[in-house]
Amino acid sequence: MKRRDFLKYSFRGIVAATVGMGIYNTTSGQVELVRVPVKIRNLPPALQGLKIGLLTDFHSSAIVPNKLISAAGQLIMSEKPDLIVMTGDYITGSTKFLSGSIGEFKKEHLIGCVNALSQLKAPLGVYGVLGNHDFWSGPEVVKVLCETFSKQIGLVWLRNCGVELNRDGTSFCLLGVDDYWEPSCSLVTACKGMSTEKIRILLSHNPDINDEISPARERIDLVLSGHTHGGQIVVPFLGQPVMPSKFGQKYRAGLVRDGDRQTYVSRGVGYLLAPVRLNCLPEATVLTLT
């Protein structure tokens, strides 16, 4: 066999094996537990080791099984986090790209998602923000969604506002904004009244919120996001065909540093359009501050 043919067939074999593994990972319903140490400048001693469980992008619908959502929740609880946060797209909203059982809101999907996450509890509470698909479902659905999560699991919504949380006598600020694509999104409002001298963590479904952050005005230490699904379809050697971010691949997934500010983007739990994730496992994340 000629060297060129050998390289050609070897390349095809590697691609086929990688695609096959990606399809297996999707159909087997695995969720990856991702542990992320986050080094924050001037972190007070009392906040050293603070564990934050992050879940996002469940997209509860006809194509996302409740057992997948429940598995993600179980992984988070197994790590005994101090705080649990969720960053939107609990359901799949209607869009011109979607129709039928995938794209139309059904309360059974919302109830299934909430029940699958009923196990979530943490000493500092469970907090959340809304994503673009939640808003695309309409204001009445948003109202039902917020009320249901609050009633069933005690989730506290951060809609352009913040709270101060205390751990071992030291407080820090947890902020949240509406989805970045919504006119109602206001980082300025969320930061109002929140101390700039304390550690500040921002929940934003869309990592593009970074475009609005001025270090001199809003100073944020850590942004927690989802939205991108990590690309959902990651083609070997080619990357992701679609990335819903003005920054391209920058905030596809993982920890990204912008000066003293860091952003963690989770790959999320569910699927959009089709029940397929190629080389991009669903994710449950536990971040530990150091």
Description:
This protein starts with a helix and ends with a strand. By secondary structure, it is of the alpha/beta class. The protein has helices at 3-27, 66-78, 100-103, 107-116, 132-136, 139-153, 187-191, and strands spanning 32-38, 51-55, 83-86, 126-128, 156-157, 161-167, 170-176, 200-203, 222-225, 254-258, 261-265, 283-289. It is built from 7 helices and 12 strands. It has a 6-stranded mixed sheet with strand order 1-12-2-3-4-5, covered by helices on one side.
**Domains, number:** 1
Helical content band:
25-40%
The count of helical stretches stands at: 7
Q: What's the Cα radius of gyration?
A: 19 Å
Write a short abstract of this structure.
With 290 residues, the protein is an alpha/beta fold. The chain has helices at 3-27, 66-78, 100-103, 107-116, 132-136, 139-153, 187-191, and strands at residues 32-38, 51-55, 83-86, 126-128, 156-157, 161-167, 170-176, 200-203, 222-225, 254-258, 261-265, 283-289. The chain contains seven helices and twelve strands.
